[in-house]
Amino acid sequence: MHFFVSESWIVLKPSIFYMVVGALLFVPFNHRKGLLFSLWGNRLDLCDIVWCSYRKVMGTSYILYAAILYVVSETLPLTYWVYTKVYGSLFVNFVLSILVGVMVIHKNRRKI
Q1: What is the pTM of this model?
Q2: CB distance 12 to 66 below 8 Å
Q3: How far apart are CA 55 and CA 112, in angstroms?
Q4: For residue 44, is it left (φ>0), alpha (ψ between -120 and 50) or beta?
Q5: Mean pLDDT, the chain, as a whole number?
Q6: 50: exposed, middle or buried (C-beta count within 10 Å: 0-12, 13-18, 19+)?
Q7: Tens-place pLDDT, residues 15-69
Q8: Are 36 and 58 in contact, with CB atoms under 8 Å apart?
Q9: CA angle at residue 57 from 87 to 95, to 5 degrees?
Q10: Among candidates 45, 44, 48, which has minimal Cα distance to 34?
Q11: Residue 63 pLDDT
């Protein structure tokens, strides 16, 4: 029980969370479109290739962010981990998701 209130557990929780989210994004629900299609599919009129590409790139980015958080927590002081967690999560959740969406849609529209 001591582990769940220790500093190492507090530092490890966000890495576990982002790893689970990244793994869920990789799981192909709804004919390979993924979890994001289940949430936004009816509202956004995008083809199957776009949904598949977007879920793969976002799943990879969340898993990569979880790995970065873990490495920073193990190698650098706690203040660097806090900065990485706060500003990195803003970047991954908002900026990266919009940029990846625009790039994937633009790339796949040229193919079609």
Answers
A1: 0.78
A2: no
A3: 19
A4: beta
A5: 79
A6: buried
A7: 999 999 888 888 776 566 666 666 666 666 666 777 777 788 888 889 999 999 9
A8: yes
A9: 30
A10: 48
A11: 92
Residue whose pair of structure tokens reads 């793994």 in the numeric block: 23
Residue 12, pLDDT above cutoff 90: no
| Residue recorded with tokens 């900065």 | 83
Q: Are 49 and 37 in contact (CB under 8 A)?
A: no
**Residue 25 structure tokens:** 């994004």
Matching residue, tokens 């582990």: 3
Q: What is the per-residue burial (b if ≥16 Cβ within 10 Å, else e) of 85-99? A: beebeeebeeebbee
Q: Locate tokens 């490495």: which residue? A: 71
